[in-house]
Amino acid sequence: MRMTRRQSILAGASLPFAAGAASTLATPAAAAGHGGALPTHRDFTLGDFRVTTLLAGSRSVPEPQGIFGMNVSTEEFAEVSAQNFVPTDAAQFFFTPTVVNTGSEVILFDTGLDAGGMTNALSAAGYAAEDITHVVITHMHGDHIGGLTNEAGEATFANAAYVTGQAEFDFWAGAENEGFEAKVRPLADKMTFIGDGGSVRSGITGMAAFGHTPGHMAYMLESGGRQMLLMADTANHYVWSLAYPDWEVRFDADKAAAAGTRRTLLGMAAADQVAVIGYHMPFPGAGFVEARGSDGFHFVPVSYQFM
Length: 307
Known about the structure:
This protein has a single domain (5-301), classed as Ribonuclease Z/Hydroxyacylglutathione hydrolase-like (Metallo-beta-lactamase, Chain A), CATH 3.60.15.10. The strands form 3 sheets. Strands 1-2-5-6-7-8-9 form a 7-stranded mixed beta sheet. By secondary structure, the protein is of the alpha+beta class. 21% of the residues lie in helices and 27% in strands. It has helices at 5-12, 74-83, 115-124, 142-145, 166-173, 178-183, 255-272; strands spanning 41-46, 49-54, 57-62, 90-95, 98-101, 106-109, 134-137, 161-165, 191-194, 199-201, 204-208, 217-223, 226-232, 275-278, 286-292, 296-301.
């Protein structure tokens, strides 16, 4: 599959919330000199699973309407932001891989921006890179594949098998994308490819969530009669994306498909009262979704529901 010029531009920005701004990226430890350290991880109990969100980094992004709400007026964007007590001059982004410890496997979903940030986040949560048995890639933007290898090109997770969506891999394999070629293709012989409804292991099921990228996947976790949805980049901000699913997001490759995915997955989460984890949601990234109006939603952060 060949890329259009517009898709090529998007692929070139495959670090959608960090490109060109490494100097402003704050790791949890690095923030200690700025009024206190950021949290490093948060554990949740889901039946027999231990689910841990990892803060691999955070940074401020200026002029957020250059990313979100691109199809609404400046006045509407400002009004909605004011109603939700969020400023319009900057947004804070979080990069949040997730570990699912099943008792027999330690499964990492996405790998952050780079190997160092990823291994530091794992260490803070009590894991070493060697503990990871499986790495699941939800999609192949740079802030999700960056930690697959180190600067020398060596695999970060020496003992891991890899799982990703077939449609996602096939798209990037034909895209001539530098990040994919450096980080993903060298591991292709260790990868298992799944589609909608495919199983990573018992209790972990892939769900097609196309739009953000051509093969973007979400994953449903289920254990002990409880569920949690790893929605990855289905919605990238709790107001400007999740609450208003039809607001266009700059880094959604197919904006109409991405909006449709948001309405479908968030509607399901709201109806079934399933908790969600979003890769860029405010840390610890987890919350519940409440339906509002005919097609809008409200994000309710977790408190002690999974202690």
